Amino acid sequence: MSAWNEHVTAALLGTERRDPPVLPEAPAEAGDRAGRLLDQAALLAVRRRAGLVPSVAAPEPVAPAPVEDRPVVPRAAAARLRRILAGEQTRVLPEWLGAAAERGYRVPAQALPDLLERGRADRALRPPIARAAGRRGVWLALQNTDWAYLVGSGDDPGGGPEMWETGTRNRRVAYLTRLRSTEPERARELLRETWAKESAPDRAAFLAAFEHGLSPADEEFLEAALEDRGKDVRQLAADLLARLPGSAYGARMAARARGCLAAETRTVRGRRRTRIAVDPPHAHDEEMARDGIPFHPSGSFAPRGAGGPVGTRAAWLREILARTPLSTWTELFELPPMEIVCLPVGAAGEPSSRKGAVSESEGRDVHIGWARAALAQRDGAWARALLKGGVMVDEPEALADLLSVLPDGERDAAAADLIRWVEGRPDLLRLLERVPGPWAGPLAEAVVAALTASAARPGRRDEHLVTRLCRLADQRLEPAAAARLAPLAERGDAAPLGVAELIATLRFRDEMLKELTP
User: Fold this and answer.
1) Is the peptide bond before 128 cis (omega within 30 degrees of 0)?
2) How far apart are CA 226 and CA 337, in angstroms?
3) Is this model's pTM higher than 0.85 or not?
4) Rounded CA gap, 435 and 427, in Å?
């Protein structure tokens, strides 16, 4: 009988009737048979667990984590990261990760599980986590399928040419995108080989990669895609062709656009004056549809401020102008962009008494079409003209989008001018939402001035504006602005809601960035 069974028998019969065997590892007998039985039972339980043979084969050992090629963040920065992950100022986490990666640091290994778990729930966090996680982060993600987004995602192809044959859609898109950046012709031919076999959603996803390395060599492929049975594929092809200088698509759009806008010249008091006569398309045809101008463009019959709803003809006009090479207008009017955008605009066929006057609705449609073209074609001269020409003051969101086209040295000053134009209006928030951070220099000064002015005005509307503006500024405004906002927080009970929290966040970010500075 085994020692375990003997002890079970002693327990059932009682230690007075059956003395349990003595184990050499057990404590010396103290005269208490029941106590000795329990001590030895505990010893037997440990012995059995220690000697348990696994029922299945043990898994292969996990390969050790690779050696890191970047140093871990400084101790103070690591401590701040722990505070952020514990719930303090959590909204600054993307900035902390981005700043660490930009300065050549990586996340402490102890923080990786928490970070990877957060990335599983928040897709917006994944790119900054991937940049700062280091080699150990990728190694750890390979051990947990919930964290697999860190490898093989759209930012990391996670393999070579075999990914195009066997990978998921995301991996294939990532591979094609990388190849377009280095060998665009090879990428195009690779896609051509499988194009007919791909589903419409996959064709659209792959075609989007053509924005990388786009060149005239892609024109034939894109023209063929205009006939695709997938609506999204056709629209993407049209959008890409519109960005291709010298394309047949651009020539077709220019021909349509010249049929809608014409230069009319007359003499007034001995001076020749030019205006833009507007005649939007009267009908929609199959050729327009093929070139990506839908019968009901997005924005048709949508609110258009004081000018009322956008009619279908006006929406067609905007679409055509947005896809027309901007050189069309400098050649037609023989003027630089700044002078062209300042020309008076009116409907074609207006009575002579009105010729030369600016028509608000026609002018808005023309200028919005040009703004969209400048954004798509990344034309700084036209963006600058539309921003400074004063012709789109009622379209602050469209103007804000143009800021990204300007050179870095001009962007902040132009954004500050926009803020001053709309200061005190609800448009301010919609404009600032489209201006990415960091808000520095003259832009920061304009934001602080707008915030101060709004806080000084009584009324619930302005209180709401200040609160929302503070919430928007806490991640974009340069930390140094905290000192300029301090007087607002010193008003005691009269201090605007949100200002104290904004200042606290700015100071937190200031300390955070200093800790990450080598």
Assistant:
1) no
2) 31
3) no
4) 13
Q: Are 454 and 494 in contact (CB under 8 A)?
A: no
Give me the helices (H) in 213-359, please.
Answer: 219-225, 231-242, 248-260, 286-290, 312-322, 327-333, 337-341
Give the closest residue to 10 by CA, choosing from 47, 41, 49.
41
Using alpha carbons only, give the angle 74, 79, 83 rounded to the nearest 5 degrees.
Answer: 145
H-assigned helices in 69-108: 75-85, 93-102
- In the numeric block, the tokens 């060998």 are attached to 183
Q: What is the DSSP string of 485-510?
A: HHHHHTTGGGSPTTHHHHHHHHHHHH
Dist CA 367 CA 412 (whole Å): 22
Q: Hey, what are 95's tokens? A: 């900035």
190, two tokens: 């690779």
**Residue in 462, 466, 261, 282 with CA at minimum distance from that of residue 367:** 261
Instruction: Report whether 276 contacts 346 (CB < 8 A).
Output: yes
Q: Going residue by residue through the chain, which has 518 residues, state the pLDDT in tens, using 9 for 90 and above.
A: 466 667 666 666 666 666 667 766 666 655 677 777 777 777 777 777 766 555 555 566 777 888 888 999 999 999 999 999 999 999 999 999 999 999 999 999 999 999 999 998 898 899 999 999 999 998 888 888 888 888 754 444 445 677 788 877 877 888 898 899 889 999 999 999 999 999 999 999 999 999 999 999 999 999 999 999 999 999 999 999 999 999 999 999 999 999 999 988 877 677 778 889 999 999 999 999 999 998 877 654 343 443 344 578 889 999 999 999 999 999 999 999 999 999 988 887 655 444 433 455 778 899 999 999 999 999 999 999 999 888 887 788 888 999 999 998 899 999 999 888 887 677 788 888 888 888 999 999 999 998 888 777 766 556 777 888 888 899 999 999 999 988 887 765 556 678 888 999 999 999 999 999 88
User: Which ranges constitute the DSSP H helices of 323-407?
Assistant: 327-333, 337-341, 360-377, 380-388, 396-402
The tokens for 80 are: 């701040």
Distance (Å, rounded) from C-alpha 355 to C-alpha 21? 117
Q: How far apart are CA 369 and CA 386, in angstroms?
A: 11
- Bridge partners for 266 per DSSP: 273
Q: Could you tell me which of 139, 152, 162, 150 has the C-alpha nearest to residue 116?
A: 150
Give the helix/strand (H/E) hosting 272.
strand 271-278
Give the residue carrying structure tokens 């806080």: 455
